[in-house]
Amino acid sequence: MDAREISVLATGGSFFEGPRWRDGTWWTSDFYRRRVSRWSTDGEETVVVELDDQPSGLGWLPDGSLVISSMKDRRVLRFADGEVSTLAELAEHSGGHLNDLVVDAAGHVFVGDFGFDLMGGGDATGASLKRIDPDGSVTVVAEGLRFPNGSVITDDGATLIVGETLGNRYTAFDLSPDGELSNRRTWASFGPEVRDATVDETIPQLVVAPDGCTLDAEGHIWAADAVGGRAVRVAPGGELVDQVTAPEGLGVFACALGGDDGRTLLLCSAPDFYEHNRADTREAQLLTVRVDVPHAGRP
Question: Does domain 7-290 have CATH number 2.120.10.30?
């Protein structure tokens, strides 16, 4: 494991998130530059949209509209024909900033939130997963998740898998064509059940803190480990079968498979995830590494 060459695609970001591969280019959000950008495979940035708030998760509706989780004002935005509009307001259903999202084939958007004030040092508490239907209506579909974050949908569209960053696990649901979730279960476990605690007390309990992630054609998940400075390839059940360690001084906070053959793993890296350190600096990087098994599923 971990014997691959890592290349630098781009530097100068504040905090990259939501990486996706679409239409022959990489896409990312950047928290504190408040923009969504496309990146060519040689690292040239094209700004798609600049926002008033902090963007995170990205996805596309069946009509090709871009959807963006707007973190601090707790909205999911729709960007189409050069215009930004609000797809859904989620403040009443969210205990913290909005987080990553995934969109199914029918256009249902699944999005989590922090559940508490992470940057302010609040106590780590559970959060809910929300579904936004194509008409903009919002339904809470799961509760008690520990920081629901990066999520994937299997190639057959039948399973939604949600990373719980502060929970030492991935949780899976059966996903029906109408967006209903059922049969909640642990898809992967990395360690003991996490005890209720402050963030500083929670982090030492984490074996893997799954952040942004991506599914491959063998049904494994490449997950950014938000506390481990690495991306890990996770087998169903939780065995770590591969990893890529970030260069010294950097963490990994999201990843995506893409490229023309689906075998390039893009890593969103920065020295840490704390807003007071990242907001006014431009130290985030996009890194790439080649892997053996191509992308599958959504996003």
Answer: yes
